[in-house]
Amino acid sequence: MSFYHAFSLLRHFVLSESSSSRRSDDIYVRNILQVISTGFESGEFTMAASVARTAMLADRRAITVTDLGTGGRSGQKRKICDIAAVSALSQRYGVILSGLVSSEFENETADSGIILELGTSLGISTLYMAAAAPHIRIITVEGCEASLSVAGKNFSEAGFP
């Protein structure tokens, strides 16, 4: 997250006039600010996602895209590297996502937590979340079969079912 975004979030928190709205958002804002301020490091557990992201950025294969979200590109062939460049999280944002997921689910058991992701794409953000909380069940949904098969390959190579 850039310094500007972190500063804007902090400014909103400090300058909000309604104390009742601040109380309801307090725990989430504190969690986000703590993850950002502690400089959550890219550890061994985020390595699989970083490796998959790097591999996708170098993959020149073309797949036929079924676009159910923005429209306009359905049925067109797109290179995996182009999809990864536009839709995959950067390593910095992936590490922040991992930190948020890890801190949110650190006290959860395998039966008590679940993550639902809509729009898997190539599965990079899913890998960041799965690595941060391997004991939590993740359900991820993707409408494009070609993207889903690439994501499935990424999951199996990273060691996640």
Question: Can you give a write-up of this model?
Answer:
The chain is mainly alpha-helical and 161 residues long. 56% of the residues lie in helices and 10% in strands. It has helices spanning 3-15, 19-37, 47-58, 80-87, 91-105, 124-132, 145-158; strands at residues 62-64, 77-79, 114-118, 137-141. The strands form two sheets. Strands 1-2 form a two-stranded antiparallel sheet. The chain has a two-stranded parallel ribbon with strand order 3-4. The protein is globular and about 45 Å long. The relative contact order is 0.15. The mean pLDDT is 80.
Task: Kindly summarize this structure in a few lines.
With 161 residues, the chain is mainly alpha-helical. The chain contains 7 helices and 4 strands; from the N terminus they run αααββααβαβα. Strand 3, helix 6 and strand 4 form a beta-alpha-beta unit.
Topology:
Elements: H1 3-15, H2 19-37, H3 47-58, E1 62-64, E2 77-79, H4 80-87, H5 91-105, E3 114-118, H6 124-132, E4 137-141, H7 145-158
Parallel strand pairs: 3-4
Antiparallel strand pairs: 1-2
Helix pairs in contact: 1-2, 2-5, 3-4, 3-6, 5-6
